[in-house]
Fold each of these.
Amino acid sequence: MSQVWPQVLNDPIVGATASLLLVAVLGGASWHKLLDRIAFRETLRDYQILPEAAIGPVATIVPLVELVACILLAVPGTRAIGASVATGLLAGYAIAIGLNLARGRTDIDCGCSWGGGTQPISTWLIGRNALLIAIAAVAATPWSARTLGLIDGLVILAAASFAFLIYHAADRLIANQALLSAMQRSR
């Protein structure tokens, strides 16, 4: 059994699926930040971590770094670097959320709902980012030299699409859980 997992993780289908999922997640995150730069700036301000002078530059740099991670993940020779950049971003987001949770500031928007409403920060989001970091580790794992065919490409596309739908559904469940909790507290 212990010999099976390294073989599974080294299969190019697994690595390509992990890479494509991260491209979709980071690409969507970047897109929504670039579409509404003012809202992203306000989200950064609400976290109360950065000095005021850094908020504008960071609001410009972060979505661009997300895009760079997407490009690096999509190119075979730079996939591991892209996974490292993705890991750094996701860890940074988790740390920012954790710092604010430790301060008792649970009412701020995570800034991760892709413009689909607000989503208060929670420990669930830290767990989600930890899972995405694990997926980035899979994407960075060296692949076997097996040549991919058309069917493999379709499997990768289907698996990444399915994983993205699960990611998005879980994200909505996390957001709705916070909303339901707030409604129950107000009764």
Amino acid sequence: MTSPTKRREGGRAALAAALSEGQAPGARVEHVGRVAFGPAMTIEHYRLGNGLTVLVSVDASAPVLSYHTWFAVGSRHEKPGKTGLAHLFEHLMFNETENLPAGTFDRKLEEAGAESNAATWLDWTFYHANVPRESLGLVVRLEAERMARLVLRDPQVSSEKEVVANERRYRVDDDVEGAVSELLYKTAFTEHAYGWPTIGWMADIEGFTTDDCAAFYRTYYAPNNATLVVVGDVKERDLLAKIQKAYGAVQPGALPVEDVHPEPPQTSERLVTVTKTTVTDKLAIGYQGPAFGDVDHVPLSLLSEILFGGRSSRVHRALVQEAELATEVRGWVSTYRDAGLYEMHAVARPGHTSAELLEALDREIERVVAAPVDEAELAKVKARFELALVQGLETASGKAEQMGFFFTVLGDPSGAFARLEACRRVTVSDLLRVARRWLRPRSRSVVVVHPEPAQVAS
């Protein structure tokens, strides 16, 4: 007897075949398969002949949908001298297209009651719109238009370059936290592209030409480098037909081979000391950490929760509440495709120094390296971990973002639930193992920040 799942998959294959009949090669649809998304939802995976990936998860619980376009391009795909192009495009993509004057894209979505935004990071760029279900056709047409027919002329490029340059001044050059984070990554990565900032170096931003932008657009904003994620109250046949019509004639691009240099193993601690316009000392540490898909990523993230996760965490209790050395502490294990950093940050209380912060922080690190944590501690952070994951899936937009992120970074749109299962399997022995593997002084970079003399005097 044929199972219900197989029958449904056969139905999707028949749907794809029917939609492909009489279509040009680029608009033909293939049903790649079905993926479970948690216990109650599924993701249907389709691909157009031009390489465009489409992930659909029907959820009729509310008359809305979330439409995401994920491009597999971020700052890691740039070259020295051209850093910041991926981020600049996040701005350029909201400008004029061949069929839409400047400002029309946003206006049409706003008139439809939609909200839209975008984000760029090291491994990816994505654009999203949350719209009423009646506006599906509109958002499909708008997104296809800017994927294929963006207008790039000197005035538009120059204007957006100035916007980005001002953003960099505000978020990095004139911001202590931003400048320290940038310096930490520049210190920790000597070969890999993660060493330069997503926003780009200022000289590169100012030096971009319209030809640079056009070449980047032709290379990376292609259907075979993109994934559409649609979650919400949609009918698959209607959605796919609209996508075929809007995107089917878009030609695939010749994607270049990634030329990212692996980061060599770090064999000694790197220490950088700077002065900034801050009233107290600050400390930023980056241990060489696992890639997001590494088996150690989940246990190290749980260990970070034990150390830094809220007011009851070990580091907060030791440095903020008991010793009163710090006013703020935080830690985060980067979620990158390649090996990243386990970041730790601390802000000294007035009258205390970064040396005191580092000494106290090292004591807490030595504790988790020397002995296993309590079972009760692990159980608590597992509950926090699961709650955070589930809260991120409460809306159609949250689900679409998780699907797009995990598919783009790991190739698995249901990876959030695989991560949850991995969390449930973690033991105290795993935490001890990852502490001893990753928390080694020789594999860390340290940025020490002292106030400028004028700040101290004031």
Amino acid sequence: MKKAVSVLMSLVIAATVSACAFAENIRVTNTAITAEDIPENGTIIAVLYDSDGALTGLKTYKGTETAKYAEDMANALPDSEMIKVFVWDMENIKPLGKVYGDKLDALPSGEPEAEKSLHMKIGDTAAEVEWEDNEAVTALKELCKTEPLTIKMSKYGGFEQVGGIGKSLPRNDVSITTSPGDVILYSGNQLVVFYGSNQWAYTRLGHIIDKTQSELSELLGGENVTITISM
């Protein structure tokens, strides 16, 4: 899940390291590190890491200035899993204290649920789909994670549009009597969207819930359509 600057928007953390005389005057809140009463030789060091412990961003702030998370830090946040903030005496090269360190993914992301969902378009028309909670849909989300999946469909049998996904998804085929609006995985690598009915062994992906049968027939009854699925 991609993190945004909002990861830190509601974060208010007072330092807990009693060994640091200045810890109670340093906090992370509203995308800023706020420092008070840090001596002139004190430097705040903010370090970001990814899940493998590799460095993704580093910024230093001198003395009592307020350290804003502006573009320099915000650009590193999406790839970061942990933040550590220290205070050092850079003149004498010695630590004054560890202010804060924790995993970013333990904090609320603030990402709206809709941004995590799959969205479907039939041509240029958005279709609201109630997606199944199964391995095939999870794999479909991964497939659409970085860019939309565009599928060129062909009319078949007078009741469905079918097109190749370009990759095999996990199958859990069962005998299904489909209804208009059903979104189906066929043979592991074919997307089928029904505007009529058929019975076969399929893996169910979802169902279009905001279109009537006549609307589906109008959208899907032509010779060829394009389906776009995106996150």
Amino acid sequence: MRGTLLNTATVACGALLGVAVGRGVPVAYDQIAVSGIGLVVIGLGVKLFLQSKNVLVVAAAIAAGGVIGLALGLSRGLEALGTGLQSAFGGSGRFSEAVITPTLLFCIGPMTLIGCLEDGLERKIDLLAVKSTIDGFSAFFLAATLGAGVLLSAVLLLLIQGALTLGAKSIRPLASDEALLGEVSGAGGILLLAIGLGLLELKKLPVADYLPALILAPLFVAASRKLPARRARCG
């Protein structure tokens, strides 16, 4: 867990500094900084999406995941939670966005999964140490523009990466399977693209509703592998 604890600490410190600095930033500078972050997030989303080997799997996962997320009310629930936390702790009108955006940004991608596996199985934190540095700087800029909600992403990062690290033996096959990992990354890339569009104020999408896609993508890959075997037996 050392790598995850380090990552959590750097995000929390970066966010605290960002909140302190952001209070004195003029609105015009705040807006241009948010737009810049949005462009970077879109670039990262495209990079992850291009790791997909089967666009149909990603498309099916995103579509089905969105329907499931909507039925479960994920976005509505997170918005309500964000509103409640904003009332309790204060913050800007973008409080929910300040929680969701960095959480997905910090937790989606191969670096998170592989880093947690190395931490859990081999006690190596080299990859998570690099990730911690990147996430710390990102948290600073996000907190300076989006506000105190970014601090809560450190807690969510601790929970998510902590679970991955503790369950390293169970999820090890996923990291060694390039096809599975590629489709998870592809679906995650789409979520980051949606976040980027929101930061640029081009289109607000219920990103949280699409979170089930990250689970459906590897399941669809596994299902697609079983179909040829069944057809062969039937033939």
